[in-house]
Backbone:
């Protein structure tokens, strides 16, 4: 049963959805920032090391289920899909990308920032799409797909809400300026129900604000970090590097991509004071991969300098996984 979510309607920031440029129908938009300014080299890094999409087959008439290698179970009921208003009875391909931990998030460049940039605690992210042959199909009215996300050692958080990628929204920043953001928003059409060992994300429809196929979803607690005072965190990178910067939080399943503000500076205005995290910077210099790991406890108006060192991409990935 779908439920109303009071948090969504109580948002203090006015949100106006509007349509954006049409994407390829099989494109998996990046909820962290589809308009990321990452270079071609860094985008290739995410393509090579990020979580890959897997395909599963079910019968449209009888439904079915599958479990990913990460332990996420997807259950699809009989007669769940329609194509042009007609019930789908043939073989259906389910495309699924399962992102459960912080290293997956960073390597795929899929962070857990709310649409306005605030950090959120995640119970897991996923991309899902359904195809009949080459045709994109939709979930029939009143039907739902249940995605059971394992806790992966984390305690149950009853504050988890169903998030979906909104392709483009106009928001008002803290200075009163209107700007375009891309990111996670609460969606009242879907439901997250915690159990003793998982979160069950009930998905009732595909496609949001310009996404022409499938959708990105995320079980998130958008209020978890609100107990901590927010401050500005500045990370400085050597301008010689083509670099990206991230915050990987300790003890919480949260990873934030911190975007550049000009020159060598990357700034994050929603940094929660008192929380421990590792500032992870990656970059290329003369075609060689470099990285920096800087553990910090966030303090007021903190300045951090990334000390890049050459490292293989494989060794970087192994070191990153120790932060999960």
Residues:
């Amino acid at each position: 049963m779908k439920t109303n979510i009071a948090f969504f309607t109580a948002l203090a920031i006015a949100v106006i959805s509007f349509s954006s440029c049409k994407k390829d129908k099989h494109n998996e938009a990046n909820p962290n920032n589809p308009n990321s300014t990452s270079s071609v080299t860094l985008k290739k890094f995410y393509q090579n090391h990020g979580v890959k999409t897997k395909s599963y087959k079910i019968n449209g008439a009888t439904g079915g289920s599958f479990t990913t290698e990460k332990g996420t179970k997807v259950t699809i009921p009989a007669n769940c899909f329609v194509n042009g208003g007609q019930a789908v009875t043939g073989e259906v391909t389910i495309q699924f990308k399962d992102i459960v931990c912080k290293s997956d998030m960073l390597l795929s460049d899929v962070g857990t920032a709310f649409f306005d940039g605030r950090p959120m605690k995640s119970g897991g992210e996923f991309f899902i799409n359904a195809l009949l042959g080459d045709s994109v199909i939709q979930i029939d009215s009143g039907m739902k797909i249940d995605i059971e996300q394992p806790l992966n050692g984390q305690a149950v958080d009853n504050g988890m809400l169903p998030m979906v990628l909104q392709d483009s929204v106009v928001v008002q920043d803290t200075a009163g300026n209107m700007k375009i953001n891309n990111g996670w928003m609460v969606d009242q059409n879907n439901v997250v129900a915690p159990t003793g060992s998982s979160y069950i994300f009930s998905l009732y429809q595909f496609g949001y604000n310009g996404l022409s196929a499938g959708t990105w979803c995320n079980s998130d607690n958008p209020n978890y970090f609100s107990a901590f005072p927010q401050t500005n965190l500045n990370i400085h990178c050597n301008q010689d590097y083509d670099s990206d910067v991230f915050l990987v939080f300790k003890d919480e399943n949260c990873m934030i991509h911190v975007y550049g503000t000009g020159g060598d500076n990357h700034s994050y205005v929603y940094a929660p004071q008192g929380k421990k995290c590792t500032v992870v910077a990656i970059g290329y210099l003369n075609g060689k991969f470099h990285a920096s790991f800087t553990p910090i406890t966030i303090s007021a108006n903190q300045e951090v300098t990334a000390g890049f060192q050459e490292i293989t991409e494989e060794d970087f990935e192994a070191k990153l996984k120790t932060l999960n």
Q: What stands out?
A: The two ends are 34 Å apart (CA to CA). The mean pLDDT is 85. Residues 39 and 242 are 7 Å apart (CA to CA). The first strand starts at residue 16 and ends at 17.
